[in-house]
Design brief:
This protein is mainly α and 216 residues long. It has nine helices and no strands.
Amino acid sequence: MTSLAVVLLSWLLLYKYALLFGVYFLSALALPLPGNTLLLASGAFASQGYMSYPLAFLSAMLGNVVGDVSGFLLADIYGERVVEKLRIKRSYLDGVEKYVNRHPRSMIILSRFGGTLDPVVNIIAGLGDVSLKTFLVFDVIGNLASLWVVITAGYYLGDYWQSFSGVATTVGWIVFALLATGGILVIFRRQIGLSESSFVKQFRHRVRKFIRMYGE
């Protein structure tokens, strides 16, 4: 556990729901804060009567959604200017944008489980043609599912929640790696001679193969 996580955990019972909201809000804006670690601990504390399960869940949920929407809107309003000033080649983003535009539901929902990828998808969706309504609906659905899994795991693990925090982090990085790899392949699929349909089939096949290999 990082020193930052230790400090934030020491504040958790003092600032409770305000801390959860703030950490999840800033995490959604790409600050590397241990939101899931705090939420796991909140679930454990809720099982012991020190915190409210519904209030902890709603605080994290609200912070994450507000942060996600803020990132989306900032990218929508200022994203193109930033891309131009940073001299990022537009061709590097076009493939990923098109893929997110065509599959916004699955990309938004899945990225809520990826942790680190969450802000990236927010920005790509804001740069692309995804509407605010579509983004908000599926952001809420994804956050409801992903945050419920984390806080419920903490609640039922109780005193053993710390032993699970490393597993949760690892799962998040695996999801991030899979989706990031897919994004890279989308960018370069023309160079490797794949149509979008064949790319999607091959990517799904590789994901299933990965799950079979490490799920046994």
